[in-house]
Amino acid sequence: MSQAFSIWSYANPTRFMATTERAVPVLGGLAGGLLALGLIWGFFFTPDDYRQGATVKIIYLHVPSAMMAINAWAMMLVASLIWLIRRHHVSALAAKAAAPVGITMTLIALVTGALWGQPMWGTFWAWDPRLTSFLILFLFYLGYIALWQAIEDPDTAADLTSVLCLVGSVFAVLSRYAVNFWNQGLHQGASLSLDKAENVSDVFYYPLLVCIAAFVLLFVALVLARTRTEIRARRLAVLEARERME
Amino acid sequence: MIRLILRDVTLAVRAGGGFGLGLAFYLIVVVLTPFAIGPESGQLSRIAPGILWLGALLACLLSLDRIFALDREDGTLELLATAPVPMEGIALAKAVAHWLTTGLPLTLSAPILAVLLNLPAPGHVWLAASLAIGTPALSLIGTFGAALTVGLRRGGLLLSLLVLPLYVPTLIFGAEVARRGAEGMDLSAPLILLAAVSAGSVALLPFAASAALRVNLR
C-alpha cells in the first residue's frame, strides 16, 4: 500500500488500535524512564536553593503537572473540534479519555502547590490569580466529566461535551484574565520562558526539562491507553446490543 | 420571536410559573447574611456588593432548569424547532424571556435590598447598573447550560455544576463595579469589561445553545 501518511488514517479505530498497541508500552516505558531519571537527578543531584532550601524540589512535579493540566484541556479542545467538524469517533473518545488525566494533573499541581506554599508563603492557599484560575480549571474539568457521565447515548454525549468544551475554553481564558484583574498575586511569573532573564537557574533547568518531557509522554501514553479502553468499551456495547437483538 | 418572549413571560408571571420564587430567594439570602456575619453595619456595608451580586447570581440559577424543561415535556420544544424561526432565535428569545422574569426584577429590587445591608449611598446606582449590564450574560450562559441538560431527567444539579464556573468572569467584573461604586472609586475598567462579557454572550451563546438544542432534539 502506497498510502501517504496522514494523521486522519488513525480515525479508523482498527488502524488506531493496531498502532497504539505497539506505541503505548514504548511511550509508557519511556515516560517511566525519563520520570525516574528526572526525579532522581532533581531530588539527589541538584543543590538546595539558597533561600528555599530543599522545598525547591517540588518544582519537578509542580511545573510539569501544571503545564499538562492546561495542555490536556487544549488537547481536548482540538479533539472536540475534530469531532464536531469531521465526526471521527476516535477523536471524541480521546477527548473523553483525556479529561480524567487532565483533572488529575490539575489536582497534582494544586496539591504540590499548596505543599510548596506552606513553607514559602506561610499558607497553603492564597487567592492568588494563578492558584484561583487553576481551581476554576478544576471546576471546568468536573463539569465536563459530569456531563459525559450523565448522558447515555454516546454520540449525543460527544456532541454536547464538545460544545461545552468550546464554550468552556472561551470562558476559561476569560476567567484567567478576570482573575488577574481581580487580585494581584504571590505566585512568581513564568518559570520557563524564552526570555532567559526570568528563568530558573540552569542547575534546576535541565532536570526540570527531563521531568516535563516525562510528563508529556506520560500524558500521551495514558490518553492512548484510555482511548483504547473506550474503544473496546464501545465495541463491547455494540456486541451486547447485537446479542439482545437476536 | 416576540410572541415567544411574550408567551414565556406570561407563563412565568401567571400562577405556578415560579416568577416570584427567585425574588423571594434573593430576599431571604440578603436577610440571612447578617445572621451569619453579624449585625455591625461597617462590616455589612463592606461585604454588601459581593453578597448582593452572589445572591442575584444564585437566584438566577434557581429558575434556569425551567427554561426548556417544561416545553420539552409537553412537546412544545419540538414544535418550536420546526417553526419558521431559526433555532438561534428561539434560544435568544428564551434567554430574553428569562432575563425579563429574573434578571430585570432582581436588578430593580437590588437597590432596595441594599438598604438592609447598609450599602453606602453612591453604591446603589452602580449596583443596579452593574446588575442591569451583567444579568443578561447570566441569563444567556444559563440558557446555554439549560440547552445542554434539557435531555436529562435530573439535570438540575448538573446544570449548576456546568453553569457556575462559566459565571466566574461576570461575577468578578460585576461585583467589582458594585464595590468600586460603593467606595466611590473609578470603575470604568470593570464596567467596560462587564459590558464586553455581556455583549459577547449575546453575540455568541445563542449559537452554542441552539447547537446543543439540535443535538438534544435529534
Round the Cα radius of gyration of chain B to an integer and report it: 18 Å
Mean pLDDT of chain B: 88
- Helical residues, percent of chain B: over 70%
Biggest chain pair contact, residues each?
A-B, 26 and 29 residues
Strand content of chain B: under 5%
Percent strand of chain A equals under 5%
Membrane topology (chain B): Multi-pass membrane protein
Function (chain B): Required for the export of heme to the periplasm for the biogenesis of c-type cytochromes.
Subcellular location (chain B): Cell inner membrane
Protein name (chain B): Heme exporter protein B
Labels describing this entry:
heterodimer, A: 246 residues, mainly alpha, 76% helix, globular, B: 218 residues, 10 helices, 84% helix, 0% strand
Brief summary of the model shown:
Chain A: This is Heme exporter protein C. Chain A has 246 residues and is an all-alpha fold.
Kindly describe this structure.
Chain B: Belongs to the CcmB/CycW/HelB family. Chain B: It comes from Oceaniovalibus guishaninsula JLT2003. Chain B: One of its GO terms (biological process) is cytochrome complex assembly. Chain B: Keywords: Cell inner membrane, Cell membrane, Cytochrome c-type biogenesis, Membrane, Transmembrane, Transmembrane helix, Transport. Chain B: Pfam families: CcmB. Chain A: InterPro entries: Cyt_c_assembly, Cyt_c_biogenesis_CcmC, Cyt_c_biogenesis_CcsA/CcmC. The complex is a heterodimer of chains A (246) and B (218). Chain A is mainly alpha-helical and 246 residues long. Chain A has one domain. Chain A contains six helices and no strands. In chain A, helix 2 runs antiparallel to helix 3 (89-121) and helix 2 (59-86) packs across helix 5 (154-182). Chain A is globular and about 70 Å long. The two termini of chain A are 38 Å apart. The model of chain A is unreliable at 193-198 (pLDDT under 50). Chain B is mostly helical. Chain B has one domain. In chain B, 84% of the residues lie in helices and 0% in strands. Chain B has helices at residues 2-13, 19-37, 41-62, 66-73, 76-82, 87-116, 121-149, 156-166, 168-183, 188-216. In chain B, helix 6 packs antiparallel against helix 7 and helix 6 packs across helix 10. The two termini of chain B are 22 Å apart. Chain A binds chain B through residues 136, 139-140, 142-143, 146-147, 150-151, 156, 159-160, 163-164, 166-168, 170-171, 174-175, 177-179, 181-182, and chain B through 144, 148-149, 151-152, 155, 158, 161-162, 164-166, 168-169, 172-173, 176, 189-190, 193, 197, 204-205, 208, 211-212, 215-216, 218.
